[in-house]
Amino acid sequence: MLKTTMSQVKHTANTVYVVVDMLVIGAPFRVFHMFFPITLGSCYAIFNAIYFLNDGPTRMFGDEEGARHLAYNFLSWHKPVEAIITCVVAMFLCVIAQIVLFVLFRLRVCVWQKLYGDCEGRMDSELQNIVVMSQSASYNTIDEGLEEKRVAEKRPVK
């Protein structure tokens, strides 16, 4: 599928970047994050099919003669069964990639805990700090604020 050397370099560089980023950053990674790329991929597949059905050409190098009807050769809607199978396989590979990234995340957490001990009192990431801050009084909803006010009014004054 990756026929040119430049295509191989670009895809390999992206993969290496994601894996190194996953091992270095402190952001938590959840298995359910897989729904974001799956949703995006599904939207792209639907867009690609609609684009094809409306005869949208993809021009190569700006010339009219170089116009072709496909964004990708392997996603040809001239053969809808093959295109749908390609989309399903891509979604399956996305799930596999997310599971591999989650395993790398858990491995990173285990290495951190082995090196620095059990870190129950420490925050994993800025996201968790935001969650903790959102539970403070300044971020409460109106209903929560009113409830706190009612509770405070019922307390006896010393």
TrEMBL record:
Pfam families documented for this protein: Rost
Keywords from the named record: Membrane, Transmembrane, Transmembrane helix
Segments crossing the lipid bilayer: 31-53, 83-105
Entries under InterPro entries matching the protein: Rost (IPR049352)
Key word Transmembrane helix present: yes
Protein name, as recorded: Protein rolling stone
